[in-house]
Design goal:
The structure holds two protein chains of two kinds.
Chain A lengths: L1 H22 L8 H19 L2 H5 L3 H16 L4 H15 L4
Chain B lengths: L7 H34 L4 H11 L2 H12 L4 H11 L1 H11 L8 H9 L3 H8 L7 H25 L5 H7 L2 H16 L1 H19 L8 H19 L11
Helix pairs in contact in B: 1-3, 1-8, 2-8, 3-4, 4-12, 5-7, 7-8, 10-11, 11-12
The chains are: A mainly alpha, B mainly alpha.
Chain lengths: ~100, ~240
C-alpha cells in the first residue's frame, strides 16, 4: 500500500513539473541565475546518481568501474543512449569472467 | 478541430511520430528492464513498476524513488527527490511552450507535457514550426508502453535470470545516464567541470563519517542544489531564448 502512495506522489510531482510551464508560465525565464541553475541541474543530478552507485550495482566494484570508464569513452566518441547502455552491460558481463 | 486525425496531413504527422518512436521504444525496453531489475531489489511488484513507469516516464526520477521506496523513506523526501531528479523537464516544458501555437487547447498542452522525456522532447522540438501534438502522441504511443512493459518484465525476470546476467544488466541504466551527460560535457567545459565535481563530491560524501549517514536521496538533493548553484554563480550562462535542451 505504502508503495502505491509513493508512486502517486511521484506521478503528481512529475506531472506538475512537466505541465506547469506548458500551461501556466508561458513566458520565457529572464533571470540569468535561475536559467543557469536549471541548465546545470540535470547534469549534476545524473552525475551524482551515477557515481559511485555504478560500482555498487555490479557483483564486483572493478567491473562497474571498468563499465563506467568504457561507457564514458564510448559516449565521448559519439555513441548514443542505447549503444552505450548495451556496451556497459557487455563490459560487466565479460569483466566478471576475470574478476 | 485543428489537430483532428480526419485531416490527411495530421494523419501523416501522427504516422511519422509512430515511426520515429520505434527506435526510442526499443531503447526504452532495454533501459527500463534494467530499471525493473533495480526495482525488484527494492521490493516493488511488477504491477507497481508497470504503473509507475506508465504514469511517470522518467528513468532518473523512478530510479531515485525506487531506491527510496526500498528503505521506506519519508513521503516529503520522495516528493523532493522527484522534483530534483526531474527538474530538467521544467526547462524542456518551457522550451516547448515557446514553440507551441498560442491557440493550442489546454488538453493538448496537458497531453504533450505528460510525455516530455529526454528523447521525446528532443524529437518533438526538432520538428519545424509550431509543434504538432499528434507527432508527440505518435512517438509516445510506441515508446511509453515499451517503457512500462520493460519495467514490469525486469522485475519479473530479475529473479529468474542468473546472478551474473542481472549484474551486467544493472549497469544499463547507468550507461544511459553516462550517454546523457557526456555529449554536453564534451561540448561545454563548464558542464564537464560540473560533472567531474559531482562525481568527486558524491564519492567523498558517501564515505565521510557523519555525512555518509544522511540518506542517499537527501545527499543527492543537497549535492545537486549546492553544485548547480555554484556552477550558476561561477559559470553563468548567457541568457538567450529558452531553447536550451
Amino acid at each position: 500500500m505504502r508503495n502505491w502512495i509513493y508512486i502517486l506522489i511521484m506521478t503528481a510531482v512529475t506531472f506538475g513539473i512537466r505541465v506547469l510551464p506548458m500551461t501556466v508560465f508561458k513566458k520565457p525565464i529572464k533571470n540569468a541565475f535561475i536559467q543557469s541553475f536549471l541548465y546545470y541541474v540535470p547534469y549534476v543530478t545524473i552525475a551524482v546518481m551515477t557515481f559511485p552507485a555504478i560500482i555498487h550495482a555490479t557483483n564486483s566494484p572493478v567491473s562497474g568501474a571498468i563499465a563506467l570508464v568504457v561507457g564514458i569513452v564510448a559516449a565521448w566518441l559519439g555513441a548514443g543512449l542505447f549503444p552505450v547502455a548495451v556496451i556497459s552491460c557487455a563490459v560487466v558481463f565479460i569483466a566478471e569472467f576475470f574478476v | 478541430m485543428k489537430y483532428s486525425l480526419r485531416n490527411k496531413e495530421n494523419r501523416s504527422i501522427f504516422r511519422r511520430g509512430i515511426i520515429d518512436g520505434i527506435p526510442i521504444g526499443l531503447g526504452y525496453l532495454a533501459v527500463s528492464f534494467s530499471l525493473g531489475v533495480a526495482a525488484k531489489s527494492a521490493g516493488i511488484t511488477p504491477l507497481q513498476g508497470f504503473f509507475a513507469s506508465l504514469l511517470c516516464n522518467t528513468s532518473t526520477g523512478e530510479h531515485a524513488v525506487f531506491t527510496l521506496m526500498g528503505i521506506t523513506a519519508a513521503f516529503a523526501e520522495v516528493a523532493l527527490i522527484t522534483l530534483i531528479a526531474n527538474a530538467r523537464y521544467l526547462l524542456m516544458s518551457f522550451a516547448l511552450s515557446q514553440r507551441t501555437d498560442p491557440k493550442m487547447s489546454f488538453f493538448h498542452r496537458l497531453g504533450v507535457a505528460f510525455y516530455i522525456t529526454d528523447e521525446i522532447f528532443a524529437i518533438s522540438i526538432a520538428q519545424n514550426g509550431y509543434i504538432n501534438p499528434l507527432y508527440t502522441y505518435g512517438a509516445a504511443l510506441m515508446a511509453s508502453p515499451c517503457w512500462a512493459a520493460g519495467t514490469a518484465i525486469g522485475i519479473l525476470a530479475g529473479s529468474i535470470l542468473p546472478d551474473r546476467a542481472v549484474s551486467a544488466l544493472s549497469v544499463a541504466l547507468y550507461g544511459m545516464f553516462v550517454a546523457i551527460i557526456i555529449p554536453p560535457s564534451k561540448k561545454d567545459k563548464k558542464v564537464l567541470t560540473a560533472v567531474l565535481v559531482s562525481f568527486a563530491a558524491s564519492f567523498v560524501t558517501g564515505i565521510l563519517p557523519v555525512v555518509s549517514q544522511i540518506s542517499e536521496g537527501t545527499r543527492t538533493i543537497i549535492l545537486t542544489v549546492v553544485i548547480s548553484a555554484l556552477a550558476a554563480l561561477l559559470f553563468p550562462r548567457k541568457t538567450e531564448s529558452g531553447g536550451e535542451k
